[in-house]
Amino acid sequence: MPQRDQLADLSDPEFVRAILTELDRRPSFDAVRDQLATLLAMGPTLTAVAQAGVGQLVEEALATARTEIAEQNVVLGQPLFTAVEVAEAVGARGSSNRVVASRLRSRGEIVGVEVQGRFLFPAFQFDLGRARVHPMVAEVNRQLTERSDGWMVARWWVTVVDGHAPAALIDTDPEALRVRAAAFAG
User: Fold this and answer.
1) b/e per residue, 92-117, with b = 16+ CB within 10 A?
2) H helical segments located in 90-134
3) Which of 45, 32, 43 is nearest to 75 (CA)?
4) Which UniProt keywords apply (predicted)?
5) What pLDDT is stored for residue 55 in this prediction?
6) Which residue did the predictor score with more confidence, 81 or 35?
7) Which of 15-19, 53-57, 133-137, 143-147 is predicted with the least confidence, judged by mean pLDDT?
8) What stretches of the chain show up as alpha helix (H) in DSSP?
9) Of 81, 66, 138, nearest to 115 (Cα)?
10) Which of 46, 51, 62, 163 is deepest in the core (most CB within 10 A)?
11) For 123-139, what is each residue's pLDDT tens digit?
């Protein structure tokens, strides 16, 4: 990363690249790197809009971005599997790890969230003892992914309502899980 006095000489895109390059080197920023990149990329536009007297719109956009970041962090705070771990979880042998996870995701059996160009998969979706996607999860995911993206569905699974997140109902109350999924799917 350039020295502080050199940063002033960088164009806006060069400045953003320098910051993102440094963030990539720091694993402690992995969970928020994409959100920071979005905010940094929006910086010049937001400044121009604010200077044009549209400060309230900027504040609303920032509030929305903060909310989205907080919601994403709820998902990112859960145990997540990589594509390799998904293949191991379902006992796949002899095929590309990414192909296994991609196929399960494209069929709607599992949800994945894209983080820094790769998909991560909430671990609760897998029945590790039987080396498979939990059938109840696959059923619900197929219903929910028809209308919602991976982030929204993953958030739904881990958001506590009436004392329980839907993920906690997989083995304990599948009928209540189906009712909640139907209500969410609308």
Assistant:
1) beeeeeeebbeebbeebbbbbbebee
2) 97-106
3) 32
4) Plasmid
5) 67
6) 81
7) 53-57
8) 4-7, 12-24, 33-51, 55-76, 83-89, 97-106, 135-144, 150-158, 174-185
9) 81
10) 46
11) 999 999 999 999 999 99
Q: Beta strands 80-81 and 118-122: pairing type?
A: antiparallel
Evaluate if residue 1 carries a pLDDT over 60. no
Among 128, 140, 125, residue whose Cα is nearest residue 174: 140
Tokens at 143, concatenated: 């219903």
What is the C-alpha separation between 125 and 152, in angstroms, rounded?
Answer: 15
Q: Is the pTM of this model over 0.90?
A: no
CA 125, 130, 132: angle at the middle one, nearest 5?
A: 40
Which stretch of DSSP H or E encloses residue 127? strand 126-127
Q: Token pair of 43, please?
A: 């910086």
Strand ranges of the sheet holding 80-81, from the earlier edge strand across to the other edge: 80-81, 118-122, 113-115
The partner residues of 164 in beta bridges, in order of sequence, read 161
DSSP state of 21: H
> Quick one: DSSP state of residue 31?
G
Residue type (1 letter), 46:
L
Neighbours of 151 (CB within 10 A): 17
Quick one: what percent of the chain has pLDDT higher than 70?
91
Residue for token pair 């400060």: 55
Question: Among all chains, which residue has been given the structure tokens 């109902």?
Answer: 169
